[in-house]
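Ticket #242: bound-state structure for fructose -6-phosphate.
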Amino acid sequence: PKVVSVNSPSEAAEKTSNMIAEMLVATPRITLGLATGSTPIPVYQDLVQRHRDGTLSIAEATSFNLDEYLGLAGDHPQSFRAFMDEHLFRLVDMNVSRIHIPDGLATDLDAHTKAYEKAIAAAGGIDIQLLGIGSNGHIAFNEPGSSRTSRTRVVELTSDTIQANSRFFDRAEDVPRQAISMGIGTILEAKRIVLLATGPAKAQAVKDAVQGDANESCPASLLQYHPDVTFVLDAEASSLLQ
Ligand code: F6R
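RESOLUTION: The complex was predicted; output attached.
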């Protein structure tokens, strides 16, 4: 993978939003793959700022989010849908009918996950997929052990992911134990991938992903099989790279 290391988290976010904004300006009808979590918040802030400045429209784009907690409605404050509404969707000119995120309340999960994959294909595939990385190397909610060919499906969260995500909930017991997540196979079909990682908690996972063997024990290392991946890192997240 290509590695771009900069000093601060804000510089890393700016590099990432530049890549996305340049693609949107060149091809407004693009399909975006989007991520939640703390890391991409400054990326979304930057895209919102460009929209306010009048230099960026996202009106023609289609989007697919990586994942959603199973059992949470889209208007539940801790759902990923609510996160995206708050940090991006409500603040820019995106067309709601072209926004896609798994439905945490879907009842026929097999049909729902298959339809999600079909919708990605019908949109022509994802042109640029934004990713974060878990400190255990997960991408989306593909925890260690997830197969390279996995598709959108229901997944179990590991206890360290539940622990990490409990910061958004009142109590750790409130964190859902399962999620709907794009698979690694789904992610690897995106035409271009940008993984943003900042802070010391990501340094080991970044090292394993970039310089370790490509295998299921570090899901992000499977990105080594993709021809166009860029890791954008701040100094702390890149500190263990040799
Ligand atoms: C988010 C997602 C996760 C996060 C990862 C890092 O949609 O799928 O894989 O990217 O857990 O989260 P933060 O950025 O909060 O450290």
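RESOLUTION NOTES: The chain has seven helices and ten strands.
TICKET STATUS: resolved
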